[in-house]
Amino acid sequence: MSIQLAKAISVKEADSDARSHDGETVQETRGRIHIEGLQKVYGSKKHTFEALRDIDLTIEHNEFLTILGPSGCGKSTLLRIVAGLEEHTEGSLSLDEEEIAGPGPDRGMVFQGYTLFPWLTVRENIEYGPKLQGIPILIRRQISNYWLRIIRLESFANAYPKQLSGGMKQRVAIARALANRPKVMLMDEPFGALDAQTKQEMQAMLLEVWEKEKTTVMFITHDIDEAIFLSQRIVVMGANPGRILKEYKVQLPAERGEDVREHPEFLALKREIAQLLKH
User: I need a surface site. Which of 7, 14, 97, 136 has the fewest CB within 10 A?
Assistant: First the structure.
């Protein structure tokens, strides 16, 4: 069986890494990011700006981790370095024990800005990555059908990005990234431009997708509520230079509805993080 067909069959069954074994669901572990002693300095020898200092961080397989911090703390710079879009000055970083030396299909990205190809339909945007991989059209159609159902845009399969709302565009962007089956999803404030109600709807949808796929997620935000609602773990960064201040493990139910925002643990953690960011 070819590698492409093997990938396609996996997508056809559920497009996730869940496998059935002795009546139980077994989740493949993948996407462990390890960062050690990372530093990023911009400028010349005479005029330098230290964007990141001594970043030590491990994101575990299948974990949803959020980097939270104010503007200018280097959180997006850190994500771009993990994506391979920017070089670091010192330190090391790896994905599943392989050095990260540039961009790769093992990392999918979703940005705040809308990055869909305007000349392609919703379906064609989702199928773009699999098409580049040479996956046959019938299998690509199975992939896009799966994701259209997951993001609840089946009736918009033949629509173009200009016909979609902002929330719809970001749903398609998430589906397009995950259709390539990356080990890691890197998300740079993807809901930052959305109105409050749409933002909460997108957060809930993202959690549903993550529960199905269990892809490792590195999520960037400055929104404390968003960080707590989405994450298993939160890393809070400070600025000048960008550095890790503290990590929090989020002790909330795995399945989170809107009512979780009123949970005592949620409110207590929100107060603690807000207080930390004041200093």
Answer: 97
